[in-house]
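Reminder to self: tokens first, then the designed residues, so the page reads top to bottom the way the pipeline ran.
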């Protein structure tokens, strides 16, 4: 029967690896926020964010209704999932970036 107990060294190594992974994730998210919020100064970022917003259907109603008037559940779920991509990006946006990207003038 194999011993499955972890040694203190193994536990310390795992904890250090988890901490490094968390720090790397936080660093990456900060880089994403910086890139997204460069939209006021970088027209290319504005174009990409507007494009993703359009692809996601952000300004559209996600509820799909069939020709018979019934709600198409699978299409509605698909639309909501697609829209959630832009919502995830939007969480990283400052109010200024949201205003620039989402206003009606292009």
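Designed residues (106 positions):
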């Amino acid at each position: 029967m194999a011993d499955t107990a972890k040694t203190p060294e193994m536990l310390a190594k795992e904890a250090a690896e988890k901490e490094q992974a968390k720090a790397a994730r936080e660093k990456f998210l900060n880089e994403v926020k910086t890139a997204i919020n460069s939209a006021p100064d970088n027209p290319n970022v504005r174009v990409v964010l507007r494009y993703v917003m359009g692809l996601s259907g952000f300004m559209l109603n996600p509820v799909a209704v069939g020709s018979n008037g019934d709600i198409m559940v699978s299409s509605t779920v698909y639309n909501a999932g697609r829209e959630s991509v832009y919502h995830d990006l939007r969480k990283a946006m400052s109010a200024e970036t949201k205003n620039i990207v989402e206003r009606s003038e292009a």
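The radius of gyration is 21 Å.
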